[in-house]
Write a structure and sequence with these properties.
The structure is a single chain. This protein is α+β, with helices and mostly antiparallel strands. It folds into two domains: about 110 residues, Jelly Rolls (Sandwich), CATH 2.60.120.10; about 80 residues, Arc Repressor Mutant, subunit A (Orthogonal Bundle). Helix content is about 35%, strand content about 25%. It is built from five helices and twelve strands. It is globular and about 50 Å long.
């Protein structure tokens, strides 16, 4: 059941609350609106010709999804958790410079995330892929709440299978690599859906990145 909450402070209007595992739109649907995550997590994915699923992204608070250069959505989108979603018609961008600026800034970050994903997927080490995934989630949190990453808790509401499909690994490999990163003291795993970043620079090095 969806619940609507009025909130127009960012130009996107009413927040619609969707339960977890609820489709927002399907691959091939007409792309007439752009969506913003107000709370929760949304997963975007593409169904391939051989019926396999390729997860293309996890969208968290403040991020946009549903952008398409074509008339139809190339991906589908579904909530991972209960999520508050706002949307605006694509036609509204023609008359609202503020919205255009928001979308432009997001698009630049999306390009950066896509480039980082490409580098992640070309890494031969499964440990580096999982480390890079955690770094990506931590970086998103840091954009919102400050520069200190050590001790930061990162939410992992998606399943291990979802992470595996995103990184091109098996579910068992993802679980093993998370436990290995924990044994190295780089992260803590207080519960299934949380990772605590203990040594951010070490995690970045494990991911094949330069320390910040």
């Amino acid at each position: 059941m969806q619940t609507d909450i009025h909130d127009a402070h960012n130009g996107f209007g009413t927040i619609r609350v969707y339960p977890d595992k609820t489709p927002i739109y399907h691959q091939g649907d007409s792309a007439t609106r752009i969506f913003r995550v107000n709370s929760g997590v949304v997963m975007t994915f593409r169904l391939l010709e051989d019926s396999r699923r390729q997860i293309t992204g996890f969208c968290t608070e403040g991020e946009f999804f549903g952008l398409s250069p074509h008339g139809d959505h190339m991906d589908g989108a579904v909530t991972v958790t209960s999520a508050g979603i706002q949307s605006v018609s694509i036609s509204a961008l023609e008359t609202d410079a503020g919205l255009r600026a928001q979308i432009m800034n997001h698009s630049f970050r999306k390009i950066e995330d896509t480039q980082n994903l490409m580098m992640t997927l070309t890494k031969t080490s499964s440990e580096a892929r999982v480390a890079a995934f955690l770094v990506m989630l931590a970086d998103r949190r840091l954009r919102r709440q400050g520069p200190n990453a050590d001790g930061l808790e990162v939410s992992l509401p998606m399943s291990r299978l979802d992470i595996a499909d995103y990184l091109g690994l098996s579910r068992e490999t993802v679980s093993r690599r998370l436990n290995e990163l924990k044994s190295l003291g780089l992260i803590g795993l207080p519960d299934t859906h949380t990772a605590q970043i203990n040594r951010f620079d070490g995690l970045r090095r494990c991911a094949g990145m330069m320390a910040a």
